[in-house]
Amino acid sequence: FIARFNTSFDLLSYWELDTTAHIAIYDFIIDDNDNVIITGVIKPNYTSTISTNIFTVKLDQLNNIQWIENYGSIGFPESPVDIVELPNGDIVIGGRKNNPAYWHTYDYVLLKYSSAGAVKSFFQMQVANKDEYLMNVRYLDDKFFIAGVYEDSTIGNNQLHNLHFCVLDSVYNYVEDIR
């Protein structure tokens, strides 16, 4: 749910998504027009126990839904971790997505929506053929700065978590690793 309060902590409005599916909110931002953009996971009523999709909702100042989008594949888990608003008003959701080529491994994912909610682009980045978890996305000077970790389970039961930092340009071309 989303609750809005004034500076005296009086409740101004309350919003809750009416659904029978399981939902968890992972992140939200408030844009320059006082709209709230929320992202999280929704577990649709599929038979798969691991299937989760990325959902994103934009609410206006009165908590009216401006748009709601659901992204994902049946049977595979996708999840968001971060929201970035670009200078033109587009919204970028950073997260992870299952890589079907390497069963039960995950890749970084960037999903860009227009300010009106239309999917403009999707980018999936494979770092090391391992489980890769995008942790943060920032946008500065027409570049995406990405921080994440990937797991190396080839050393036995102990999984080594490697930090990974990279830079992509505004159309997701790889610029450099930062170490």
Note the topology.
Elements: E1 2-5, E2 11-15, E3 22-30, E4 36-43, E5 53-59, E6 65-71, E7 78-85, E8 91-98, E9 106-113, E10 119-125, E11 132-140, E12 143-152, E13 160-169, E14 174-178
Antiparallel strand pairs: 1-2, 3-4, 4-5, 5-6, 7-8, 8-9, 9-10, 11-12, 12-13, 13-14
Low-confidence segments, given as residue ranges, are: none
Q: Report the span from N to C terminus.
A: 39 Å
Helices and strands, in order, run as EEEEEEEEEEEEEE
Helix residue percentage: under 10%
Structural class: mainly beta
What proportion of the residues form beta strands (DSSP E)?
over 45%
Q: Average pLDDT, to the nearest integer? A: 78
What is the assembly state of the chains in this entry?
Answer: single chain
H/I helix tally: 0
Explain the overall architecture.
The chain has about 180 residues and is mostly beta strands. The chain is about 0% helix and about 60% strand. It is built from no helices and 14 strands. The radius of gyration is 17 Å and the shape is globular. The N and C termini lie far apart (about 40 Å). The mean pLDDT is about 80.
List keywords for this structure.
single chain; 179 residues; mainly beta; 4-stranded antiparallel β-sheet; 0% helix
Summarize the model shown.
It contains no helices and 14 strands.
